[in-house]
User: What shape does this take?
Amino acid sequence: MSEKAADTEVWTSNGYELVVGLEVHVELLTRTKLFSGSPNHFGDDPNTNIDPVSLGLPGALPVLNRQAVELAMRLGLALNCTIQRSTFARKNYFYPDMPKAYQISQYDEPISVDGWLDLPSGFRVGIERGHLEEDTGKSTHMGGAGGRIHGSDYSLIDFNRAGVPLVEIVSRPDIRTPEQAKAYVSELRAILIAVGASDAKMEEGSMRVDANVSVRLPGAELGTRCEVKNVNSIRSVGRAIEYEAQRQVGMLEAGESIRQETRHWDENDGRTHTLRSKEDADDYRYFQEPDLVVVDPDVGWIETVRSSLPVLPAARRQLLAELTGQTTDAEAVLVVTERGQDEYVLSVAQAGGDAARALVHVKEAFAEQGDDPSIPAADLAKLTSLEIDGALTATQAKQVLAEIVAGNGGDAAAIAASKGFEAMDDSELQSMIDGAISAQADAWAKFCAGDGKAMGALVGAVMKASRGQADGKAVTAILNERRQNT
Amino acid sequence: MSDRITSEAVAKVAKLARLSLSDDELQQATHQLSDMLDHFADIDALDLESVEPMTHPMDIANVMRDDVVLDVLDREEVLDAAPVAEDGRFRVPPILGLDD
Amino acid sequence: MADHKTGDQIPAAATDISWEVRNGVTRAADVLEKYLGEIERRDDDVHAFNLVLTDESRARAAEIDDAVAMGRNLGALAGVPVALKDNMCTRGIPTTCSSKILDGWKPPYDATIVTKLAEAGAVIIGKTNLDEFAMGSSTENSAFGATHNPHDLTRVPGGSSGGSAAAVAAGFAPVSLGSDTGGSIRQPAALCGVVGVKPTYGAVSRLGLVAFASSLDQIGPMANSVSDAALLLEAVSSHDPMDSTSIEQGPLEISQQLDWGVAGLRVGRITDLPEGASPDVNERLEVAFDNLRAAGAEIVDVEVPAFTYGLTAYYLIAPAEASSNLARYDGVRFGLRKDAPDTNAMYMATRTEGFGDEVKRRIMLGTYALSAGYYDAYYGRALKVRRRIAADFAKAYEKADILLTPASPTVAFKMGDKTTDPMSMYLCDTYTIPSNLTGDPGMSVPFGTGDSGLPVGVQVLAPALKEDVMFRTAAELERSMS
Assistant: This one.
């Protein structure tokens, strides 16, 4: 898993392959802003979380938030980055929501460099850098067409968000499919939450994804890339990249060339659109921020942070997959780990339960439970044991589980007994099957002639006769056996 | 007059800095900046290959503050001082590109 | 209470005022009235102040007197009127930087030095004029009109802290604070015949000082005597956790050492000092060396080869930082706005209307020095020259404890003399600039007169945080004149 897996999955269209690098901005979970003491809090009344620094008032001076640095280090270490001596620079540009007309950002000396992130599939995406910077304020465009900047009459600016600490994580252009891009964002999100760096809510903007998309013929140099912005959900990450790649292939096929530009993903029409090009956008006149000093964490600090990191999602999935005999990217493994219920499955196994069945039950029935389910692990363990022993069919087990969940626990055997679930003996089952074959003679004939679909009708008849108590697996096994013997 | 900087370059710089210059002012600025850059050419001859840039007078590192909430400014006081405010926010004319 | 000193009985020195106020010999209110009276009498001619805080200062003086009456302990500046350069934020009180773009703006917070002054019992008497955003050497670049030199009203007071220098020289305040980015305290001090100190970078908090060039700016005292300058510097210097570039150490301790003399001190003469100082100024510098030698100092020759490149390094670095620091004046959140149909047009209109010519010139120069394709040749190179200069000074300070140079190349020049040729104005800073680049302290001490009987200042330079030695030397020069 930690070795780069041979992932040969590649998106192609008309012979072109896709190359994607992602830039993800995440707001850090600090109490205060990156350079000042006003609250970092989403959703408050406009311009209530402001101070001379976040308003860019004359004479104001930034002072770096230690917790923001520490969270950036946690994230960097979780992404296998090297934590290095870093500096801040000023990125100069005029925009009404940028109060000082420069953004303080780590430019040529970021805090985290050269890491990687392994996707559940085992595919490894390189991380170029993770750097600290401050967020901008928020503009609301008034009048004109529905809040769009184009054609608006005027704009209103709220500086509550100005100065909120961000880390920008820049991947290497290793991603080759929209699916990988989605998996990357989703895995990054899981890591952010696991290390406590961010709540990573794409819908609230605390996690923002920009995709650098290009296409090329296999083996050719990297194509001209377009940066796609405003991708606000994991689903749209896939859609936006897919659309943009097809757009570029279409242009190249039509003999046109790709212009390097920033494009805006429109969720409603499912397309990307050219953003107004700022003609001075590429002359930010970066220079080292004279109001701040070097950040140079010593080994002691770095190691203290490293040792305080939790077990990361990849390692948790690995453990769960091994225990349950699944692959690390099996849906149940992904879902249960993401819910934080993997440890619960482990405790069911420790209580003598069957891990694989526990995994399925937890995935299916525990969606409403948090990362610390209220049902005693021993109760679930007992249920899986009854299944393994053949005392309960899968269908019966499901019903018993529903009762256990509803009652926040319960004895599986007692619930099964109260429901009258008893393992059907073989002769009873055989006679029900006899009945089904004679009642569904057509289906039986088709089934014998090799029409697998006909089996459904036969199994259905048995289930009906048994009022759902027959073990579906046993029924199909007997039907197959009988067919072979005819 | 020296030609260390062209009037086109000065015009571009003025635009970057959001200053507008009349033609006369542009010519004068070009002349003055050229003159200055001429004067500043004295460092061109220095061999600075192995010299590290000095961005700070003092060599200090790791100045940080605790993540503790401090007083915020009073919104009304701040907005009263704003050129134009509306609905608790600062109001600006439509945001267009430089050449729109 | 008729036994309080009034009028001419009130001492002129801040050290005496503070002692007498604390001990109930003189009332802060009477001290204040003396200075308000002088301002009333002469500031129409001098124009040292943008704003005289008559009501606020009277209320504050009364507070001080009440505190004394109640037997409270007061700080080192008890009842001492202090004039503040108008680029230091005072809560609820206009802070203009002598710029139209900030006209009417009232900061919602106090600069750290304002808080320190309040703690020390000082009375802020007013906000003094400056070259707009501290850019200039004559205080002629002010949106509110030029300040005149009290020694000769047809001449400039120097700049950019010309208002603070003139206020002290004219007797409008016993002490004042200025800011020094390339000589803006020391050069006007020299031209007005007062003491002016640029402390070690980071010794005085910059929080609330409206930035010109952040890596060079430093607040410092101006006074009629070395001991008053020491008193004020000790009161405002401190580590400020809200200024990341503040040096982590307590207030400077200078005053006790003022009488220690210079015996055994190695005073350096820079043999490769850039030329340009006029003969009268050089003559006074020679007398200064002689007097120090006579007082027991050893005069040593040192070389600072990169000194001469200071002007270039400075005039690339300072405008570069300024171009960024002054970008926030955009008409969105505070200050001037000129209406226009869209935001960019509004920026253009506001900044074009709000900034004066010199500020615009430096913004353009700095923008150019940082812009794509020119960074390495200009700003990047200037930073390397800065390192070279610091290294040369460090080497010189191995041989000498103190260096002596002119503070200004000439005595006060006529108003209008240098306004049409920016480069000639920049040359005023030749001798003061290097210590801003290195971060080391420097001060100008009045040392007799030159041409036209106008004051000449000698500059004393010292390594970082050696303010004590620098002040000892300055005190010796001052004594040698009396």
User: Anything to note?
Assistant: Residues 7-44 of chain B form one domain.
